[in-house]
Design goal:
Urease, subunit C, domain 1; five-stranded parallel sheet; globular; 13 helices; TIM Barrel; 18 strands; alpha/beta
Length: 404
């Protein structure tokens, strides 16, 4: 299948400059760029009249199966019902220009396979299965009065409880057995969990190191949920590749990020959305009251990390009906970063994090043909990415997939 984009302004993310020319896609890859390219017989041709072309976006922290902000309710729902919600959520992400997403717990190989086979519309899905949590940790969503541990891993849910070095090794191996692209570990308390404090640390260093060892043995990596500097620093010392959120990091954390060449994945929009709409979409009152502890700190943490040169990736972490705010993350980051740096976090930076440099997040010849055609310049105004009206076409694997 061939697609030719004619008369485009093509963004080079390394230089931050646009080049006038054409771009040809063949068999799902970018085949060539340049002036005056010829369309093969049967190719679809789009005359862009100077519209801007940028790589398809990558969201490195989503929960496509989180159909409600009450995560503890997911295991009681029919897996088929949750899958239907997931399909609709993924379709919305694709329509917003996200051609690849990294799921940070909840999605599994079934959703990834369904998307890859064309059974559902959505971004390419990099999944981790269930996040690993200690008893009473961020992935343990039982209320205080619920004593029985839910071990029905075939049901919907975002976490699995494992305590002790042997148990976490077995849990990590089990998620890797099912094809996990990465392993997620809960290394601190969180907003959506009912019985822990945001400022707690979770898992011993021996347990964290065991999880990292298992991921590295499988040539995979660990992403760690953590908020406070103390929790973030422990996770970095244990060898995780990415820290999710990191709202309360300090200068010591920044030094460790740089020393370990690790990534920070801020998720600013989810706190804004949870504060505004969380209760309407199922967030329990106790969790809603926790939001203020991290809401304002996230932007300061992003600015601290950015100024120091920490590697950054774009993430959103939205739940339930709040997924529709995904693109608002661009505007929030734009308060402390240049538009080019924000766009890099959602393309080349995220691609590097997930180990797909040169494959996605770029318009280089040979890369997967994931790209957006925009009416407007996102390097001047991040609203071009934040508002769907500016998105003329979404191309995924060389096919125009939006608008439908």
């Amino acid at each position: 299948m061939s697609l030719l984009l004619r008369d485009a302004l093509i963004l080079d993310l390394e230089s931050g400059e646009y080049a006038e020319g054409d771009l040809r896609c063949e068999d799902g890859r970018i085949a060539e760029t340049g002036r005056g390219l010829r369309a093969p017989d049967g190719a679809r041709v789009l005359d862009l009249a100077g519209a801007r072309v940028v790589p398809g976006l990558i969201d490195a922290h989503v929960h496509v199966s989180a159909s409600t902000a009450d995560l503890g309710a997911l295991p009681s729902m029919s897996p088929a019902y949750v899958a239907a919600h997931s399909a609709r959520t993924m379709g919305g992400m694709l329509d917003r220009g996200f051609t690849t997403v990294r799921d940070a717990s909840g999605a599994d190989y079934g959703l990834a396979d369904a998307q890859a086979e064309g059974l559902i519309r959505g971004p390419r899905l990099l999944f981790c299965g269930r996040a690993l949590s200690q008893t009473g940790g961020h992935g343990d969503l039982r209320g205080r009065g619920q004593s029985a541990k839910d071990d029905h891993l075939c049901c919907a849910g975002v976490g699995r409880v494992a305590d002790g070095v042997d148990a976490v090794r077995a849990a990590a191996r089990d998620e890797l057995r099912k094809g996990a692209h990465h392993v997620k570990v809960m290394a601190s308390g969180g907003v959506a969990s009912p019985t822990d404090r945001i400022d707690s640390t979770q898992y011993s260093m021996d347990e964290l190191r065991a999880i990292v060892e298992e991921a590295e043995a499988a040539n995979r990596y660990v992403a760690a949920h953590a908020y406070t500097a103390r929790a973030v620093n422990r996770a970095l010392e244990a060898g995780v590749r990415s820290v999710e959120h990191g709202n309360l990091i300090d200068d010591t954390s920044v030094e460790l990020f740089l020393r370990h060449d690790a990534f920070l994945v801020p998720t600013l929009v989810t706190y804004w959305a949870l504060k505004e709409e969380g209760r309407a979409f199922g967030l329990p009152e106790g969790s809603w009251r926790k939001v203020d502890e991290v809401l304002d700190a996230g932007l300061r943490a992003l600015e601290l990390a950015h100024r120091a040169g920490v590697r950054l990736a774009f993430g959103t972490d939205l739940l339930g009906g709040m997924h529709r705010h995904q693109s608002h993350e661009f505007r929030l980051r734009g308060e402390v970063q240049r538009p080019l740096d924000v766009l890099r976090a959602a393309t080349t930076g995220a691609a590097e994090l997930v180990g797909m440099t040169g494959e996605i997040g770029t318009l280089s010849v040979g890369a997967r043909a994931d790209l957006l055609v925009l009416d407007g310049d996102p390097l001047r105004d991040l609203g071009v990415l934040a508002e769907p009206k500016h998105l003329r076409h979404v191309v995924q694997d060389g096919r125009v997939v939006a608008p439908v």
